[in-house]
Specification:
Length: 474
């Protein structure tokens, strides 16, 4: 008991230390409510039970495997969440004088430097709040760059395998989109690219490894073709899990890129919380980055608005989603250069191991090996009209989250699997067994697969209705 009281007191002390508002003040009678508030009168235990039961109905990384391709649902160390809640970081306001927030500014400056090292870029901004927001930021930078040069470039090339956010961001930034068709092996051809390239193309947006989980073999040729045309190279680095410590986007020809901290760097994607999509550029684009910048002047960190002449402006209130930035910083500091490289190696190893367990049972969309993820096509492998959607639902019955399905759009009945580096051989073996079993079930007892899931708190939903008319009351 004494220990608990001490802890409570020390928490209170923390609050008092960081807070200049008196904690025990009286609210004037005239401001106090006279009628009871209209909320359910429930005991604490009822409420705790309600939310605990709800949380158990959820699929979560902390209780199951989550092979959602392109989302890098790796296990993220809990200690990083703890660091993100340190009082010294969170009991602070972004409008405080910069001398009083030197630590926070240093964390952001350190992460910018680290991301430069990982990517080879010369400068980063941490402002964007998501991958798509990062793309939009990068495209505005490209747009302003050409405007400053007096060049009229109105088009962006986007491969047909790209993430849907790519063409959407380009359109939002005012560009016209030209689609580039992938070859049958899933990669891009420099020759095909040069055939559609015109002088008004501002950039190409590429994902490497692409959304099929394979490396673009012609990347150097593509970079040459684009740069000879005066156009730029945009790298969609939402998933850096196969790339960290292995190859730097800037070294293979890219000029602008974004990274999703909420995929590779210790915040789960789709975690329901904030994300962060830092944008990096080569030196010649640095002036166009969002304002303000964090700079270091004689040992002090400063918030600098000095780049406003060319800057695309402010992309988000204050400095971005700071807790996500903090977790990413803790993650890279804990792993170090070697650890980041090892994470990439294991991510690629795990994906290839799983691919090998499955490749004789179901069609692999492209090639015999992959990078951090791979795409299967179940067309022709499932019996009795069973679809990929049914397989995904059946996986829930066996306690696994489903892979990404029906993406990329260029693969029929696609199933995109990303095991990540944090899963064990034992788990991958078990998962492969279950997937093979479901393929078998589709032939022997198709009605079971089509009726799935049956072991989950709710069975098959009308997903459109569920999104349009959610039932949020109990
Ligand atoms: C996730 C992802 C994005 C978009 O990121 P959001 O944070 O969801 O906006 C863009 N491109 C690729 C390849 C992705 O996997």
């Amino acid at each position: 008991m004494e220990k608990i009281l001490n802890e409570i007191n020390s928490d209170k002390q923390d609050i008092e230390l960081n807070c200049d508002v008196a904690l025990d003040f009286e609210i004037d009678k005239k401001y106090q409510r006279t009628t009871p508030i209209n909320i359910p009168d429930l005991s604490e235990s009822t409420i705790v039970r309600h939310f605990t039961v709800l949380s158990r109905k959820n699929f979560a990384l902390s209780n199951t495997f989550y092979p959602l391709g392109s989302c890098t649902m790796k296990y993220n160390p809990v200690v990083n969440e703890k660091i993100a809640k340190f009082n010294s970081f969170i009991n602070i306001h972004p409008l405080q004088e910069e001398e009083t927030i030197q630590g926070n500014l240093e964390v952001m400056s350190e992460l910018e430097k680290t991301l430069c090292e990982v990517s080879g870029m010369d400068a980063f901004t941490l402002q964007p709040a998501a991958g798509a927001h990062g793309e939009y930021t990068g495209l505005l930078i490209i747009s302003n760059y050409f405007k400053a040069k007096g060049e009229k470039r109105t088009k962006i090339i986007v491969p047909d395998s790209a993430h849907g956010t790519n063409p959407a961001s380009a359109a939002l930034a005012g560009f016209e989109i030209i689609s580039l068709k992938s070859e049958t092996d899933g990669t891009l051809s420099a020759k095909k690219l040069s055939e559609i390239l015109t002088k008004d193309v501002a950039a190409i947006m590429m994902t490497v490894p692409n959304t099929l989980g394979i490396f673009e073999k012609q990347i150097s040729e593509i970079s040459d073709v684009m740069h000879k045309n005066g156009s730029l190279m945009y790298y969609d680095g939402a998933n850096l899990n196969a790339v960290m410590g292995m190859v730097r986007p800037a070294d293979i020809g890219f000029d602008v890129m974004h990274i999703n901290l909420h995929k590779t760097f210790s915040t789960p994607h789709g975690g329901g919380g904030p994300g962060s999509g830092p944008v990096g550029v080569k030196a010649f684009l640095k002036d166009f980055l969002p304002s303000p910048r964090i700079i270091k002047q004689s040992d002090k960190f400063k918030i600098d608005f000095g780049n406003e002449k060319y800057s695309i402006g402010q992309m988000k209130a204050f400095f971005g989603n700071f807790p996500v930035i903090l977790k990413a910083c803790a993650y890279v500091k804990a792993l170090g250069g070697k650890g980041l490289k090892q994470a990439s190696e294991y991510a690629v190893l795990n994906a290839n191991y799983l691919l090998n367990l499955l490749k004789d049972k179901i069609k692999v969309a492209t090639g015999k090996t992959c990078m951090h993820e791979f795409v299967l096509s179940s067309k022709g492998y499932l019996g009795n009209g069973v679809k990929t959607l049914d397989v995904a639902k059946r996986l829930l019955d066996y306690g696994y989250y489903a892979p990404t399905i029906y993406f990329p759009l260029i693969v029929e009945e696609a199933m995109m699997i990303e095991p990540t580096e944090t899963e064990s051989k034992q788990l991958l073996d078990e998962f492969a067994d279950v997937l093979i079993k479901i393929i078998d079930e589709s032939n022997k007892t198709p009605e079971v697969v089509k009726a799935a899931p049956v072991n989950t708190p709710v069975t098959r939903l009308n997903e459109v209705q569920a999104a349009r008319k959610p039932q949020l009351r109990w």
